[in-house]
Design a protein that fits this description.
Helices cover about 50% and strands about 10% of the residues. By secondary structure, the chain is of the alpha+beta class. A four-stranded antiparallel sheet has the order 1-2-3-4. Helix 5 packs antiparallel against helix 6. It starts with a helix and ends in a 28-residue tail after the last helix. The relative contact order is 0.14. The C terminus is likely disordered.
Length: about 250
């Protein structure tokens, strides 16, 4: 089970990488190393083949400012020997174990959306290569021909981008269900927190049986989330079909 901070860290990686982590695809990569900024002040997100970490670099930044105009190649430079504080850590094994506990239909949805995105990108790549790449990199016999090809290209590329945008929105919705604690709303009580976890029906029943009248009253008064909006037409350029009704990424 991943706690709130761990789920939010996975969510901060982006829907694509979070989906790969939950489906245990990141550990298969031969090399994986990178990072990105964090919304938390003084922090940075780093990841490698083993795990993703939220690191606090505040003390290093203070030491850098204190160094001022000191030569980067001379002096003691204590900030070079400092290591960031790991605030939150999630190993890819932990993420995969959590992903394995998700409902099968949700895992299938994430897999389908990931495949649809790869197919859409591959189809666009093939379309571009067949025509020699972007129009501004090609030679034309006349300006009129260039303008005609450019107009056709813009229309097709616009459809491709809209198709990807629809897939990303669907994947984002699926990830929010897979990582429910990334939602900003705080749970009303322990029962709601348990309700948000996958495969926890037994724990919910036990908690309800043992709960006090105060907790039961609070649970009855809690607000319910709105219904999920219906999926719109996919409108994908190459791969998505109107018959595909799986909820989104």
């Amino acid at each position: 089970m991943l706690n709130r901070d761990q789920q939010q860290l996975l969510g901060a990686l982006g829907t694509g990488m979070a989906s790969d982590a939950l489906l245990d695809r990141l550990r298969r990569r031969g090399t994986l190393e990178g990072g990105r900024s964090s919304s938390r002040a003084g922090c940075w997100i780093n990841y490698n083949r083993d795990a993703v970490r939220l690191e606090d670099h505040s003390e290093i930044y203070v030491a850098l400012r204190a160094a001022g105009a000191e030569s980067p190649t001379g002096g003691e430079q204590p900030w070079r020997r400092m290591k960031p504080t790991v605030v939150v850590k999630v190993t890819w094994a932990e993420a995969a174990a959590y992903g394995a506990s998700l409902p099968p239909e949700l895992r299938d949805e994430l897999t389908t959306l990931d495949r649809a995105e790869r197919d859409e990108n591959q189809a666009w790549w093939n379309y571009s290569n067949e025509r020699g790449g972007w129009p501004h990199r090609r030679r034309f016999n006349s300006d009129a021909e260039h303008q005609r090809v450019q107009a056709e290209w813009d229309i097709v590329y616009g459809k491709h981008i809209r198709a990807l945008g629809a897939l990303w929105e669907r994947q984002k919705a699926a990830i929010s269900r897979a990582l429910p604690l990334t939602v900003d709303d705080e749970p009303v009580d322990l029962l709601e927190l348990l309700d948000q976890q996958p495969a926890a029906q037994d724990a919910v029943a036990s908690a309800r049986a043992a709960s006090t009248p105060v907790l039961q009253a609070a649970a009855l008064q809690r607000t319910t989330g709105g219904a999920r909006p219906p999926d719109t037409a996919d409108g994908c350029l190459f791969t998505m079909r109107a018959a595909d009704s799986a909820p989104g990424r």
